[in-house]
Design a protein that fits this description.
The complex is a heterotetramer of chains A (about 200), B (about 325), C (about 100) and D (about 550). Chain A has about 200 residues and is mainly alpha-helical. Chain A is about 80% helix and about 0% strand. Chain A has one domain (about 10-200): Four Helix Bundle (Hemerythrin (Met), subunit A), CATH 1.20.120. Chain A is elongated. Chain B has about 325 residues and is of the alpha+beta class. Chain B contains seven helices and 13 strands. In chain B, the strands form three sheets. A five-stranded mixed beta sheet of chain B has the order 3-2-1-5-8, with no helix packed on it. In chain B, helix 1 runs antiparallel to helix 2 (about 60-85). Chain D has about 550 residues and is an all-alpha fold. In chain D, about 65% of the residues lie in helices and about 0% in strands. Chain D has helices at about 25-30, 35-60, 70-90, 95-105, 115-140, 155, 160-190, 200-235, 245-280, 290-300, 315-345, 355-375, 380-385, 390-420, 425-450, 465-495, 535-540, and strands spanning about 420, 500. Chain D is globular and about 65 Å long. The chains are: A mainly alpha (about 200), B alpha+beta (about 325), C mainly alpha (about 100), D mainly alpha (about 550). At the B-D interface, helix 1, helix 2, strand 7 and strand 9 of B face helix 3, helix 9, helix 10, helix 11 and helix 12 of D. Bound molecules: heme-A (2 copies), dinuclear copper ion (CUA) and copper (II) ion. The site of one heme-A (HEA) has 32 residues of chain D, from helix 2, helix 3, helix 14 and helix 16.
Amino acid sequence: MSEHVHRDDFGARLGMWLFLVTEIVLFGGLFIGYSYMRYKYPIEFHHGGMELNATLGVINTLVLLTSSLTVVLAIVAIQRAEKKRAMAFLGTTLGLGLTFLVIKSFEWAAKFHHGLYPNAPHLATLPPGEQVFFGLYFTMTGLHGLHVIAGLSVLGVMLWWVATDRIRQDRYVHLENGGLYWHLVDVIWIFLLPLFYLAA
Amino acid sequence: MDWMNQAALSAQKSDAVFFYVFGLSVAFLIFITALMIYFVVRYSKKRHPVAEQIEGHLGLELLWTSIPLVLFLTIFYYGWTNYEYMRQAPRDAMAVKVTARQWSWSFEYPNGKKSKVLFAPINKPMKMEVHSADVVHGFFIPSFRLKIDAVPARTNTTWFQATKLGSYDIECTVICGVDHSLMLSKVIVVPEDEFKAWYFGGEDAPEPGKALRAAEAHPDLKDLPPGLAVLTSKGCLACHSVDGKPKVGPTLKALYGRQEEVLVAGAMRQVTVDEAYLRRAITNPMEQVVRGYPPAMPQTPMTEQELSEVVRYIKTLN
Amino acid sequence: MSETIHSTEAHAEHPGYGTFIKVWVALLILTGALVGVSHLGQTYAVWGLLTLTPLKAGLVFYFFMHLKYEGPLLKIVVLVTLGTLLIFFALLFSDVAFH
Amino acid sequence: MTTHAATAQPQPSYLVDTGSRKGLMAWLTTTDHKRIGVLYLYSMIAFFLVGMGIGFVMRLVQLTSFQHLITAQTYNALFTVHGVIMIFLFVIPGLPAIFGNFFLPILIGAKDVAFPRLNLASWYFFMAGAILAVLSLFTGGGAPDTGWSFYAPFSLKTGTNVSLAVFAAFILGFSSMLTGINFITTIHRLRAPGMKWFRMPLMCWALYSTSWIQLLATPIVAITLVLVILERFFGIGIFDPAKGGDPLLYQHLFWIYSHPAVYIMILPAMGAITEIIPTFAKRTIFGYGAIAFSSMAIAGVGSLVWAHHMFTSGMSSVANMVFSLLTMIVAVPSAIKVFNWVATLYKGSIDFQPPLLFALTFIFLFAIGGLTGVMQGALAINVHIHDTYFIVGHFHYVMFGGTGMGLFAALLYWFPKMFGKMYSKKAIYASWFPMFIGFNMLYFGMLILGMMGMPRRYYVHLPQFHTMHVVATVGSWFLVLGLLMFFGALLYALFKGGKAEDNPWGGVTLEWTIPSPPPLENFETIPTITHGPYHFEQESK
Ligand code: HEA
Ligand code: HEA
Ligand code: CUA
Ligand SMILES: [Cu+2]
């Protein structure tokens, strides 16, 4: 039905938001599981939190918050037909997203080094609650990491489309939707920070 | 009928609610069905060619919202209060540790005595502290209308007060692996003095309720051929028939001399059933497993005399 | 199609760079506050978690995700979702909290 | 409104290939909502037959003498696969994916759904999930043996291929969510001019509320299943008591989705019934608002009752009370619907046709299913019948007697519109008798078995249950007979049936204003709506 190219930007955003609903509930399930377990093992979670590097967690928060900012700024730029600026903003976002992943991988590597990963012999010697803590830690940050990667891929495509003028002043709902996704990833991290890194 | 057997107080509590809801349900079902049929006949195209366009009726709408609501709330309340009664064990109840594992039940009494079937004195409250050694199981006594899951790393409790002498099934109700359906046991309700004799008796005090359990399979063992009597009293007939009907295990009819495929240490082997094979199959059931059957047969201690009676009896079934 | 006519009406006026930068600064401050509070002790940390974190998330939703500039529908969608999660949570704790 | 806008040269029907691709390729790359609906129809009927075949074999096993053919391990795999197929491949996607796709845009006067390509993608996700589910039977450690509820820690320990099966369910969940997103956006954005919310046919309300449950509940099961996979591969320990995990958390998370899922199954079927009854009673629906509202209420409250599957799990007694109470409340909107349907027959001018017969059968069977549901919701009864055949009886009544019959009724109602062919009404009536009798023998038998204390998922049963098992199995033979006759009649009609009129039943919703089968673009010109959906006035005067 390609002859009827009709555009419904609001419809597209609505669709995106509905998709975000599923993402929110997906992580919501994990958060519910987290609270269940934290209620059951308050002390162990406290101990688990002490093993994590809060500084790295906070730095990563700042990185993501800033990357979120640059995405909205890119949209403003597009609305004003400032293509170069939009590309610069998006580029910054991508850079910050990658930074986040690099920091994250250092952090994970350190945990592996200390034998604090699921099924590790060392972890098995810790009290059950702490094993659960680390199970949740890896699951939730890992899943979040996957979302970061997905978001980066989407934003990469957006950058390309801005460059090739598929996204422009009168037609940027894709960029908005990509941005929405990225902000959600950011919001999830906003919650992960106090739940894990500041739990001690 | 066996299933209406209310053998404990909890059964009466549960059934009372059931009959209340059942009565309501039947009434509503008949009402709705009758109305549907009546309307279809009465307002058929022939009898009633022009439909009346009725958009709704607020009063009726409220009526059939509030009546079911009220009825449902009574059902809830009745169900809940009776359940609370079933759940709260009295203080003087004897606490029995129930352990579930793939695929058997075991019971440990306060003084450390253990058993494979549950012995319960009549008219005395018994508290069950149920837990599991591996996966989730369900502890279910139909005649008591009682069920509680056995969950690893957690102890769930329930209680009962049996009101009728007898032997009742215990079944596992949560899927727990191949032999989920064989995870059966019995609760044997005995007179209190009989229970005490066993409970306070030494190591080798005879188990109570022997008579009850044998009676279940056959009224009088003395009338049976000795081999069959052994099969009956040892509970073999729960899984084996002597008339060719397949049950959990293969039938014993025409077994002797048959060619069979058995699994020995993982390898399929063709064997002829002879006396040595039978003895091994009974005394060491896991060593060779008949093809197509689960490795489910429990090891049952038997004296040499019992064993030869059984083998002789199996031979007669040809 | 008739639907396409009201497609962009929601975007009457666009906010500028400044708004978002202000929000960003606010987010950074809140993060700092959260970290600070979590050093004061367990109860403070929990309260910080329960108040500051939703506040931060709210800012992102409201400004960065443009909810402020959208009609009621999307706001309702978000509220329904969060409400549902909250109820799941409460009902789950009717089990956990009474063991 | 029996006359449709007759035009000089009618558009070709959607069944005719018009694009550059022909035949199968044209179907596999279509973005037309009608074709996608038909793709779903065929794939689902296929899975349905496989699932039913398994059900049939399980009945044979309970005849005991057939236990030679099947081991206990196989039996456990059979009911797991039967459950997974029926739930995830048949009843959950069933009505929305087939009739929702085909008719939702038509009912609201649109040319397609909001995101046609996403729609096709959903079908591919569906097929991918289905194929993975089938693969899980033959690969890894063999077919999963945990039951469709995959309870931890057994599902973590068993050597069978749980991971793949669970992953399949995850993908299927994804498909279901995408369809939900599509429908909600479609209803919000693509209603024809004048199609106000309260002028939509009630099927649309049913689909709308269903879609919301899909969005708000499915992700929970998705994450839960991911956790099961992670647990199996990496041992993260969240559900594994040996590592401090909690099996009850698994059960909560699983049922947070899987209870609302039962309303995903039933709501669209209720919607279809709500379309059928006015058409054959030739009068407007009784209580439009009440029915629309109760759909939303079921969706809302239905999300809050999940733990009634866990009354014996050792939950706190407060939770038991709360969830029992909520369970009772969710039954109210269903009751409202039943009464409104019956009231719609009152003073109608009833034209008795096969779809109506099946719709009334639906009401009867669903009422039994629902009433047994209420029994299960009462705590004192639940501790007896939980995890027995009573439950099995209950859910076959609601899922097969409810959703299944609803789907059959919808199929009979819309078949002439979808394919432009008419089936033999006599053959359908003839198939109804064995189906109805067999159904009740089979599943009422199960209810009795459950009261007697027969646990579910049992390969062998104790002797006292044998008689009823035989009754049930014999019932299943009648049921098979009826079903084969039913599908046979439809299959025959598909190839050899006479041409159907555009409006064989005298319906007044929008789908009856267009040709059968509908043209590619549905409407020549998008209609303008001036009144509610069940407007029979002109007809009856
Ligand atoms: C289509 C699917 C469907 C539907 C619609 C329902 C509807 C209902 N279900 Fe069912 N249910 C399942 C599918 C469904 N269920 C499945 C699959 C399982 C088992 C899962 C598993 O373990 O594998 C299950 C299990 C299940 C349980 C758990 C049992 C257990 O394992 O212990 C419970 C407990 O409360 C329950 C209750 C209900 C109730 C109260 C309703 C209500 O919504 C019903 C409301 C309807 C009516 C009440 C009938 C109409 C009303 C009237 C005629 C009015 C007059 C009546 C009165 C005044 C009494 N269901
Ligand atoms: C919509 C859902 C649905 C439907 C329609 C059915 C239909 C049937 N089911 Fe259902 N059943 C479930 C959903 C459904 N089931 C679920 C969710 C479970 C729980 C699983 C679990 O415990 O995890 C279950 C469990 C279940 C059990 C319990 C197993 C146990 O606990 O031990 C039994 C037992 O008999 C059973 C039997 C049947 C039968 C006989 C049918 C009959 O209706 C089938 C009759 C029809 C036929 C026999 C088909 C006729 C066609 C052919 C024969 C042609 C075949 C052709 C080809 C394959 C090309 N089912
Ligand atoms: Cu133990 Cu089933
Ligand atoms: Cu339920």
